[in-house]
From TrEMBL:
Keywords: Membrane, Sugar transport, Symport, Transmembrane, Transmembrane helix, Transport
Pfam family, one: Sugar_tr
Signal sequence segment: none
Name of protein: Major facilitator superfamily (MFS) profile domain-containing protein
NCBIfam families membership: SP
Amino acid sequence: MASREPHYKSKITPYVFACWILAAFGGLMFGYDIGISGGVTAMDDFLVKFFPHVHERKLHAQEDNYCRYDDELLQLFTSSLYLAALIASFFASKACTKLGRKPTITMASTFFIAGAFICAAAEKKWMIIVGRILFGVGVGFANEVGIFIANLVNYATVMIHPSGWRVSLGLAAVPALVLFGGSLFITETPPSLVEMGRKEEGREALRIIRGVDDVDAEFDQILAAAEQAKQGKHHFRRLFKRSSFPPLFVGTIIQVFQQFTGINAIMLYAPVLFRTLGFNSNASLLSSVITGLVNVGATFVSIYAVDKIGRRKLLLQASCQMFVSQMAIGVILSTHLQATGTMSKGMAAVVVILVCMFVMSFAWSWGPMGWLIPSEIFPIETRAAGFAFAVSTNMTFTFVIAQAFLSMLCHMRAHIFFFFSAWIMAMGLFVLYLLPETKGIPIDQVEERLWKKHPVWSSFYKEEGSEYGMA
C-alpha cells in the first residue's frame, strides 16, 4: 500500500539518467543477440562457410521444405548462449554478493565483447560456438528493443557479401562496449557497499544517486534491510517447505509455459521460418523486422494495461488469441505447404499476419507477465531464491526450444503448430484455475492475501500455519 511507504528526498540527476541509459544497453545486449542469431543462420554466406551441406540442401527443390535447416550444430549455434547463461547465472549471484554489481557488470560486458570479436572473426565452427558461449556468459552475468534492432541489422547486412554475417555478429560488441565504458565510471550500489561492510562509501554513493545530502532516513532503511538479509539464512531450504510450494510451482511453470507458447521458436528462427514458407532471403528478413516491430509496440500495451486490466485477464485474452493464431498457421501450412515447392504469395502474407497476431498477444501478456508475476508471488523470505529458480527454468527451456525447434519442424512439419497450440490451451486452463491475481497486493502481504485465500493453494497452509511471510 503506497501510503505505508516512506518518502525519501531525491531528484533526477545526470548520473541517474546515465544509469538508465546503461541499464537500457544491458537489455539491448541480450535482446540483440536473441534477434541476431535467426537472421545470421538464414544468410547464404554464413551457411556456405560453416554449414555447406545445409546450404546445398536449400538449393535442391526435391528436398523437404520443413527439413532444409535441420542440423544439430546449426541449432547449437543459437542454443549454446542459453545453456552458458544458465550456468553463468549461478556464479553471477555470488559475484554480485562478493565483488559488487559494478565489477560484475564489467565482467559481463568483457565476456560479451570477447564473444562478439571471436564470432566476427570466426573461421571454424568451434569458433562461432565458443563466441556464442561467451555471449551467454555475458548474459548470465549482466529485451524487445534489442530484438528489433537486430532484425534491422540483419536486413541491412544480408546485402554485404560475403561478410554480412560478420558485421551482424560483430556489432554485438557495440552495446557491450558502452556498458563496459559506463561500468568504469558508475559507483557501486549502496546496498552492495553495505553488504561488503563499506558503510560510509555506501552513504556517499546514496548521496550521489539521490542528488541530495539528506539521505539518513533511507540509509538507515538500507542498513536494516542488510541486517535482515544476514539473519535470513537457508532461503533455498525454506523454498522447499510445503507452504512454499504454491509460489514455487507457479513461478517456475510460468517460465515453462512462456517457452512452450512457441515464441522463441518464432523470434529466434523467424527468417528461417519465413524462408521455409517460400520467401526469398530479403523478404524473410523484412518479415522478421515486421514481427520485431510488432513485438516492441505491443509491449507498450502491456505497460499501460497491466495495472488497469490485471494480470489474469491479459493472460487469458492472449491465450485465446495465441491459440487461434497457432491453429490457423498449422491448418494453412498443412494444406498449402507441401514437402517441395512454395506457398502462394497471398497465403504466405496471411501467415505473416497470423505470426504478427501471435507475437502481438505474447508481447502484451506472457512475455512481460512471465517475469512480472514471479517477482510478485514469493514472500520476502524466499523471494530471491524463488526468482532465481524462475530465471533458471526460463533459461533451461529456452535452450531446449532453441536446440530442438528445427528438428521438430523437420519431423512434425506443420503439426508443430498444433503441438504449441495444445500447450497454449493448457496455459489458459492454468491461468483460469491455478493463477491468483497479484494486482495491487504488496509483497509483505502476499501470503495472507494471495495464497491463503486461493481455493486450491490455501490447503498447503492449513497444517503449517503462518510460518513465513510475517513482516
